[in-house]
Design goal:
Order of helices and strands: EEEEEEEEE
Number of helices: 0
Shape: elongated
Structural class: mainly beta
Oligomer: single chain
Number of strands: 9
Length: 124
């Protein structure tokens, strides 16, 4: 309360998705958002070493499959367990309740696992 006016800071939350760079598991992952929100950032943390021949990538997309501006994480080849890589989204990053964030996971050669934390800010 400030000068008799109530206010609430934006509510932020985090969604987690475990992804794999194993060939059979690559492709699009879908994460449902429980309420209207804006995706502000993401962090991928390696949970099993990324195979050493090429980088892995995670492209963040909105519900219609349009790339989020700033929504690309590239995880270098040979990244060890615990390595973290972040990105910040600035456009094509708003969702209504029950829409889905799409994560396009790709790597030329098979190998590696990550846990991805997506930071969202609730809209209203």
């Amino acid at each position: 309360i400030s000068s008799g006016t109530w206010s609430v800071s934006p509510l932020t939350d985090s969604l987690r998705c475990d992804i794999s760079f194993v060939t059979a598991a690559q492709g699009t992952y879908y994460i449902r958002v429980p309420y209207a929100c804006t995706v502000t950032s993401a962090k991928a943390r390696v949970t099993s070493t990324i195979s050493g021949t090429d980088d892995g990538s995670i492209t963040f997309k909105d519900n219609s499959g349009t790339n989020m501006t700033g929504g690309l994480i590239t995880i270098p080849a040979s990244s060890a367990h615990g390595t973290g890589v972040t990105c910040s989204m600035t456009a094509n990053n708003t969702f209504t309740a029950n829409q889905e964030i799409q994560l396009l996971v790709s790597k030329v050669t098979s190998g590696g696992l990550c846990s991805v934390d997506i930071t969202i800010t609730r809209n209203s």
